[in-house]
Amino acid sequence: MNIIPIKPARRASITWPSEGLTRVPYTLFQDAAVYADEQDAIFRGPSWSYLCLEAEVPNPGDFRSTFVGDAPVVVTRDTDGELYAFENRCAHRGAMVCLEDEGNAKDFSCVYHAWTYSLQGDLLGVAFKDGIDGKGGMKPDFCVGDHGLRKLRVATLHGLVFGSFSDDVSPLDEYLGEEIVERIARVLDNRTPVVLGRFTQMLPNNWKLYFENVKDSYHASILHLFFTTFQLNRLSQRGGIIVDPSGGHHVSYSAVDHAAEAAAQAKAAGDYADQKIRSESEHRLEDTSVLSGMDEFGDGVTLQILSVFPGFVLQQIQNAIAVRQILPRGTQQTELDWTYLGFEDDTPELREMRLRQANLVGPAGYVSMEDGCVGGFVQRGIDGAGDGRSVIEMGGDSAESSASRVTEASIRGFWKAYRNAMGY
Amino acid sequence: MAQDIHQLIARAQADYVRCIDDGDLAQWPDFFTGTCVYRVTTADNYKRGLAGSMIYAASRGMLIDRIASLRNANIYERHGYRHLLGQPYVVSEDEQEARSETSFMVARIMRDGSTSLFATGRYCDVYVVEVGHVKLRERVVVCDSSRIDTLLALPL
């Protein structure tokens, strides 16, 4: 069957501000037509969306339900050992064929009319296809082979499973680029992840406000006061941000500079002895074990936040490792799915460190709970200001890698990739 | 005098929720023994035996730090809770300790007055029995839903 793909016409008409990436129209966070266009152009367009971990579907028959944008999707491992993904939507009348979050199955049978699909999403059989006693049944020219579930391309990278609805999207490693792949490998290469827990946070804001927040290295020490309040900041940190050429992916990292750290400590000790410097804050942690960690990667990097357009985050904050999946849920709501990770070869001590450091992240995290509400502050703040625009000028107007984290370059990068995908 | 464990637990829990909903949060850690566990997780994680938690304190010091951080460091919109507890179910008891489970519902009241059902679940507890009162050695707050709306700041 020949299919001529037709690009759906855009519903929304957006004129981007002449200033370029430093201005973003607020209407993008409000307009239902923009949201619908994003589903076509981004989530069902030429992009790769995170689906799950390979470790979550280790055996033949294992499956896991997830979403790509609005669309419900099932990831399976067939008896050939390969991974497959398809839309969780019966080809007959549209009912979901998989009603569980995860499990092991031989096939998927729609509960509505028992149309049955293989683990690869191919239609195997239709109930009463030939009718009963020669009466009823499907039209004679009905071809089972034409009515499979809509399939996604699947690609894996260091245990992460990505899927795409697009035949045009470039291969995953090219899509990500070398620097991003390297930074994913740094955390996950040759390791078997173990899920330590899963949590869902419902954010009262448009999905892009959360993705901006993830890419915003400017806000960290301003909005999140935990480290400064308890005087846990290390001044002598080196770090920077990486923005890939497409703009859509980024890494923000910081590392302890051991030499500078030693010098600073010596200086602090000296100053302390002279009693010239005393701490201004009376706040100290009673139990600092929440922060005790180890240099797991041997490079002194204590923080690496990595994002992949349009909705994936890999987080390493000391030994607290998690993947976050950002799922749009209408113009004003976002589902943020956290999966906390350890690794199979964790010592009991390291595992306990991860569990304690998990206090830093997630819906109740010492340095992340603010991110749960700040997007809502923007969403409510821009009510009535659909003709307004945000100002994103910190660090200039480009979307390039930088040795400073006091920049909004990776946010501009996001908008660069977004405009490109949306044709704005 | 034989102590009625059911009554002691019910009294301690009434005191506990009053502290969070209407009292001084700084006293919340006092409901726990010095070496204690407090964690907040979901029924799904709990059933699977996954140890990852939204909040995990392994000492009373960590509980004190949680409150200090909420008061002095963390930023969130002003809100309060209203806890409603079921009767404690005493799973087991001896002279030193008692295990119990208690269901809870928590409404969250935001500063603009909007009130919503924020969490339902159960407390899975281990109480140390002392003369005339009990203290928590372990409280695992098992939320029925895997979803948290916006953020979890105040303890459950």
Descriptors:
heterodimer; A: 424 residues; seven-stranded antiparallel β-sheet; 10 helices; B: 156 residues; alpha+beta
Write down the Rg of chain A. 24 Å
Cα distance spanning the termini of chain A: 34 Å
Taking all residues together, what is the mean pLDDT of chain A? 92
- Using DSSP, what is the number of strands of chain A? 19
Give the biggest beta sheet of chain B.
Answer: 7 strands, mixed
What is the end-to-end distance of chain B? 33 Å
Number of helices of chain B: 3
Number of H/I helices of chain A: 10
Class derived from helix and strand content of chain A: alpha+beta
User: If strands are numbered along the chain, what order do they take across the biggest sheet of chain A?
Assistant: 2-11-10-5-4-3-6
Mean pLDDT of chain B: 96
Explain how this protein is built:
The complex is a heterodimer of chains A (424) and B (156). By secondary structure, chain A is of the alpha+beta class. Chain A is built from ten helices and 19 strands. Chain A has helices at 32-43, 172-176, 178-188, 207-215, 220-223, 226-229, 258-274, 348-357, 369-381, 409-422, and strands at 23-25, 49-53, 62-68, 71-77, 83-87, 102-104, 108-109, 116-117, 123-125, 151-157, 160-164, 193-203, 237-243, 250-256, 301-308, 312-317, 320-328, 334-343, 389-391. In chain A, strands 2-11-10-5-4-3-6 form a seven-stranded antiparallel sheet. In chain A, strands 12-18-17-16-15-14-13 form a seven-stranded antiparallel sheet, with helices on both faces. Chain A has a three-stranded antiparallel sheet with strand order 7-8-9, with no helix packed on it. Chain A is globular and about 90 Å long. The two termini of chain A are 34 Å apart. In chain A, 42% of the residues are buried. In chain B, strands 1, 2, 3, 4, 5, 6 and 7 form a seven-stranded mixed sheet that branches. The model of chain B has no long low-confidence stretch (mean pLDDT 96). Chain B is an alpha+beta fold and 156 residues long. Chain B is built from three helices and eight strands. The chains are: A alpha+beta (424), B alpha+beta (156). β12 of chain A pairs parallel with β8 (147-149) of chain B, so a sheet runs across the interface.
